[in-house]
Fold these 2 entries.
Entry 1:
Amino acid sequence: MLEVQHIVKAYGKQLAVNDVSFTVPNGEIAVLLGPNGAGKSTLIKSMAGLLRYKGEVLINGEKNKTAKARRDLGYVPEMPAVYDLLTVQEHMEFIARAYRLENWEADAAQLLERLEMDTKAHKLGKELSKGMQQKLSIACAMLPKPQVLVLDEPLVGLDPHAIKELKAMLREWRDAGHTLLLSTHMIDSVEQDWDCAYIMMLGQLKAVMRREEETESDTLEKLFFRITEGEVAEA
Amino acid sequence: MKALTYLLAHRVKNQVLDFFKKPLHAILLLIVVASMTAAVVFPNREGIAGQLPMRNLYAMGYGLFILMFCLMAYNGLGHGVSLFSMSDVSLLFPSPLSPRRILFYGCVQTLGRYMLMSLMLFAQYGWMHTEYGVEFHHLLFVLLLYALTCFLGQLTAMVIYAWINGDRRRRRIATIVFFGLIGVFAAVVFVMALQSHRPGLMALTTQVNKPVLKWFPVGGWFGAVFQAVMSGSPKAALPFAAVTLAYTGALVFLLRSVGSGFYEDVLDATTRNHQAITARKEGRVTESLPDHVRRGAEGLGKGQGASALYYKHRLESRRAGRLLFDTQTLILMVIHLVFSYLMRKSGFMPAFAFGIYILFFSANSGRWVRELTMPWVYRIPEGSFVKLLWCMRESVQKLFPQSLIMMVASGLMTEEKPLTIAMAVICHFLFAVLFMVGNIAGDRLYGQIRSRAVALALYALVMVVLMIPSITLLVLALMRSWVFVSVNFTLMVMLAAPMLVTIPLCLVFGRHVLDNVEMNG
């Protein structure tokens, strides 16, 4: 379970995230929606423990900066961060060693195969295209099988097959009881693959919609535009 | 207003406005301008202007211009250079504007950039005025020559790259000509210096001033122009100015003759520049790697938890072809050896002090600095302090051989006592570690400051503070005339002893640096 409680993140006088709170229970896919500059990436970086902030982030009840919480939280950054001089397979080995994983080889092989990276296992990070780097970044985050997985714009740069496969994997993880949160600014990219949606605007959480609340006349897309365009008009 | 003039004018205007939007930049600029003004208006009156032989200054001029020209032109043998930014490539190149005008625009903006870069030479005005009687208008002339050297070096690189055009045979020919030219001039100067039977530095500066080096392309011509102006005979500069004009005209003609073909020639370099700038903006530290990396044996092999970082670093260094030292460190070590040789008559201490100074540039260039710009090191579920130690281990291991080679070589050249050399190795190594941990301690203090210049200034300040105990003990030893083994040995013990305390203190102070990204900027 992922609990976000009153997160405030400021850069100087500018509030990037302003008092955001929500909870994603186990076995759910939550989407964090919002236009560019809404504060989604800052919020996710705060959850991943990369930034300093006010408030609390709990991973299965543990504060996110503890070693246990770090082990239980997987993070896919917005910009793929891979090592130029390590092969794809060595990235897997590095993560396995750093997270002290045992019998990881079969999981790594399966992940690479599903993301169509198995033929690139001996390619160096610097030799991969942006999309391949993104896939590797996803594989690295998934290898330790974290209970909570947070993905920042994971679909950007992926080819249609990889998008389809990643969505299938996320659904499988949800069905296995994992907690998933993915951010995007492209509302149509999440289609039906969500249980709860959080819409951010100007650093604040503006609306929450559960999947079962969506009707033909009141869709997530309509809600999104009502909020974002309404805010723009107000501004 | 014409499109390119409009673009250039507005880019400059916005750059200036953007600079002043950041108060720290404005303060820094104020300090730089104030120190420049002070240096110009109130030069050091204690020294006697022009007290050193002018041949030394001319030799430095030749050295600077030739070095800058060679470094710039060398890029033509590799990925080329570019006078353009990525936005120029995407917006100007496809536009109906004439390629010749675009080339001229690129030349103007590049020259402007180098003019701006040349301002750093202002800092050298004080000693140039005191030691060689260089006046302010002379300095302005040096700045102009420096900017022109860089500009012509870049233009030369573009022509070389365009001529090679991906052809291996042409690349080989260009490489042979480039290094052959440098080799011939260097050999002539070196042989003449050996034949003169004078002490090293004096023989070298004397030969550099002889006519032969004046004919080295661009760098030599500008050295000759500088010498002519400084010696009060500007007419002697005219032939070299004429050659420069003809050379520039020929380069521009060659580039213009390929029409829009130069677009392709600058594309690779522009893309690389853009990637480097983007990486810098994103806080990533890029590493220059060979085009074809030899993989060798695959796998980390060892490491669990935080120690996986160390074995990963070892693997990366092997792949990068840097088992012991990176290129920058190697260059600095060679410079130190040359310095030690030239200064061998002055004893061991100048070489030792220069060795410490070099650490300012090399101690923080290790793989651990790059690691801090990646998210993984923060995400690994281990304690911050343990991760930090494993992260630094590979770099620390490389510092000891560096200290050993530098200090033993300079010690032997200056015929220093073995015990003092051994102490110098320890002292130099401790300084290297102090420079590293000082960086970490500093990050905890000013990690959130985003301006590189300010962060560097604060780092220098932190290092000064960390060295206060050593300096205090050193002064005390000098005042009390303490001597164990030898004076040099005693001084090094005084410098080294406090570092055994300050280094662990810095580490403890910075132990949470890997708690989150913001701890180290």
Note: The radius of gyration of chain B is 25 Å.
Entry 2:
Amino acid sequence: MSQRLNFRLRPTEGSVLRVLGSIERRGFSLEHIESRRVGNAILLSVAVSGERPVEVLIRQLERLYDVLSVELEPCPDAYTTACLQQSFGEPAAVPT
Amino acid sequence: MSSIAPQRAAPSPSVEAKPYRAAHALLDALRAEGVRFIFGYPGGAIMPVYDALVDHPIRHILVRHEQAAALAANGYARFTGEVGVCMATSGPGATNLITGIADAYLDSVPMVAITGQVATFLMGTDAFQEVDTFGLTLPVVKHSFIVREAEALPAIVHEAFRIARSGRPGPVLVDLPKDVANRPIFAKPSHPVPDPPLPECNPCALERARHLLARAARPVLYTGYGVFLARAERALRAFVEATRIPTVSTLKGLGGLPTDHPCFLGMLGMHGSRAANQAVQEADLLICVGARFDDRATGKLDGFAPKARVIHIDGDPGEISKLRYAEVALCGDLSRILDALSLRPVPPEWGRRVEALKASDRPRYDAPGRFIYAPALIRRLYERLPEDAVVTCDVGQHQMWVAQHGVHRSIRQHLTSGGLGTMGFGLPAAIGVKLADPERTVVCVTGDGSFMMNVQELATLRRYGIAVKILLLDNAALGMVRQWQELFHDRRYSEVDLSDNPDFAALARVFGLWAARLESRDQIDALLQEWLRSEGPALLHVPIDPKANVWPLVPPNKANHEQLMET
């Protein structure tokens, strides 16, 4: 199942390459890519698939200097998301 | 011993003042960041910066291979906690830096690497010594810049330093085209501003951690290099003193809790102590502090700490639940988090069990035979070293013996390439440390394989009179590979024989070092003393048993409690 990540990036040299490379190196496949420059940012939308938790990938991408924000479009694995939210102390019920 | 004084150019006969160029602004910006040393090697595309160096007070250390520049800056940064700086030209100079940059990336070392690049109008034309340094280094840097506008250079340097040292540290590349470096500029050096504070730890997560700690019957602390990155050794020690929770460490976390502390059980993982691995196996709560569940530490992940819930304390949210699900994640300032946790003492039954594990796992140093027994030599070395000495290692069997048998009093006193496992790390790293603190005893423990990977740096020791003491354990083989071929490849030895090594003591003397060969056990005390007290850089060559192996050992794809012991 693929999941879509929406990024706002700094418009710096190599920022798109850096993000796409990071996604692949972390074990995810790139299924679809769209990118465009809007004002002082690059908007990048990527559909990814992989067996590892996408929430961990998001935190790894958030630490990139070029990434101003990254959002996961709804439809993730509900159990994994709830568990990870709870481990960070956020009020989320783990499905049984 | 002679040493080379910094060279200064004679005053120019020209009466015209030189314009202030980007190359000079680069050096001023580095100085504004507090840089004391640049480790580097000149070449065509970086020549404007080397020209500016002639008139600049910043100190440049000329190494003999660019890889050593990156590793010396790496060692300097690991020891000081400051940003290390290395520099090379384009093309092969840049590619030679990459191993040291990758080493810094995997071990979270703050570093800025400056590379020359061909002129902007030649970039993309396959020009002489042109290579896409930016592209080549993308996977192994925290961030990178190509300087296209000279005026932007001071701000880029400042930002590079901020990125390198902030959060989870790492290397940053600044690629500087030659024509940009030569351009006159009018920008002033950028002044450092403090990094933003770390976010507050989530109070709900903290409460959940307290709850787990209060109920744990068999807690174990699992600590790593993140303790050093967060400057949290004090808080860790206070936490252990208050709770007496048994503690195990990763390779790079050794010294976070002194290894002679009663609560310390040793390194965990592939070559970890039996007590450490067994305690983790039995634990019902694992408190991971600044570590990342690396495969060398966990063994087969499914079998790691199988009965334990996990509290993961780290400065980097990207590590949480990456490999092992954490019931509680505490991200933020490690010291504040540790100070805020429950201080309930460990249950007495668990304390007694762990004491028994530790008592049954004391290493022996009375090996029979005539060969020098490397673990005993390492132990003897540490008994003779000043308490504040720094030991750097290379990679292989000797590295594991140092980890297992050294007495590590703080993390920055044991520098080892943990993530990348870079053979050739030890000597350049020791150069970086000794330059940072010339009064400190700095020892490089190396092996005959690793030593030859950066042997040319003996010339750097001689050139600057850098009094690093090298202890070379020589088993005439690539010992760790040989050990694996013996145990897991049916003794089919493939390209591991180094019995035609040079005479290492004679080689060192050619480079101007004091050198000796230690051949029998009754020479150990006298020669260690003579070697440590010798003036300037020195090498002690120690032939050891070519068949000696590192024990214990967790075989590949096995859980840590299935480790093999010496028979």
Note: Chain B touches chain A at residues 134-135, 138-139, 142-146, 148, 163, 167-168, 202-208, 312, 316-318, 320-322, 325-329, 331 (CB under 8 Å).
